[in-house]
Amino acid sequence: MTTTENDRLLLNAYIDGELDPAHALEFERRLADNPALADERTRIEALRGAVRERLPRETASPELRRRVAALARPRPFATDWRAGPGWGAKWGAMAASIAVAFAAGSIATFVAIGPGSQEPVPEILVASHVRALMASQPIDVASSDRHTVKPWFNGKLPLSPRVVDLTAQGFSLVGGRIDVIGLTPAPTLVYRVRQHVISLTALPASLRASGAIRPIDGYNVVEWSDGPLAYWAVSDVAAPDLENFAKAFRAGEAEP
Amino acid sequence: MDRGDSKARFANVVMPHLDDAYGLARWVMGNRADAEDVVQEACLRALRGIGGFTGGNGRAWVLTIVRNAAYDWLRKNRSPAVVHVDDLEAVERMQLADNATSAGDNPEAALIARADEAKLEAAIASLPAVFRDTLVLRDVQGLDYREIAAITGVPIGTVMSRLARARGRVIATLGADT
């Protein structure tokens, strides 16, 4: 049994979950017949495991973060961040509040328009998602155990979301947080797929979307209703992946 | 789009991906100081170009700009040793075909699984640039093939072959190490 160049490409794609089901099945048969290929699979998985577990995730330094945030800050005066060390720190501190200001701005719009209007909800949810991504932890309660996450919400909010275990479908629960939409505190579940974060917020069904929802600044938004609740999922995963997530969540068995 | 709008969008689209941006730049540049300069330059470009971002994948968009900024920097400031990929890939293909027959009880896998951080990092860092970028985008940053193809500007088939070679090389380096 020889291992061809093509086998190796397919093996890598298979391990990365990039083969469609029909090709994956065909490849699994080939894998079963070819011990050399099966060995190669073990080595590649060992490598992937070692990279995942042992290489530290590089993070931008606070100084770099300040410098970049300063670029995004509206400048009322003609001043450059390079103007001096004193300025640098001051601008940085001010710039760090941008995301907050952005989120607050959206909420102000919502409140001014009134709770009857549904238009700004997606924007607010995206802003909350972005702000959570920029915080060191996108979650208030970190747990992959739905039996921990659900009671955490129960103790704080009148509104309690379904918490579904989707590990088998590739979406792992990492925790939850509370977002404030207008004046309504809302439970948000946080899932992860590959390196992407998905925020799933439960809102009263009265805040349902009135029409088609468009992606906002590269974040896809999916919304569906379930009895008295409307669920909103926000993420930068590709739209079909987010649809799959929504489908899996709706089909999933809720925490009893 | 007015400047305030650009900045608000920049905060929304670019800022959440700053760690990924820095992570990629760090691998390409090889040191912290140059990586930070490259990220800052890339962010300036992103801010100027934010009007052209039509939605879609923000992370892939940001990483594309970072990678371009990094290679522009390398071309300007370092020796022109930025490899001819075509030659390299032909050589690799032959080498891969040669050592494709190793079988048995797989002692290499155990060595690879035990490789410490320094060895892993060195093995990845010593890869030719295009192989290293592909491996880092996939295995360190978790992007899918389509995203990697968009960022590196090559067809998906090329992503597949680069990734197979990159992993093959790192496995050979770590597996040979006793």
Highlighted features:
heterodimer, A: alpha+beta, Phosphorylase Kinase, domain 1, 3 domains, 6-stranded antiparallel β-sheet, 9 helices, 6 strands, B: 178 residues, mainly alpha, Arc Repressor Mutant, subunit A, 2 domains, 75% helix, elongated
How would you portray this structure in words?
The complex is a heterodimer of chains A (about 260) and B (about 180). By secondary structure, chain A is of the alpha+beta class. Helix content of chain A is about 45%, strand content about 20%. The longest helix of chain A is centred in the N-terminal third of the chain and has 20 residues, at about 35-55. The radius of gyration of chain A is 22 Å and the shape is globular. The N and C termini of chain A lie far apart (about 50 Å). Chain B has about 180 residues and is mainly α. The longest helix of chain B is centred in the last third of the chain and has 21 residues, at about 155-175. Chain B is elongated. Mean pLDDT of chain B is about 85; it is low at about 95-105. Chains A and B meet through helix 1, helix 3, helix 4, helix 6 and helix 7 of A and helix 1, helix 2, helix 3, helix 4 and helix 5 of B.
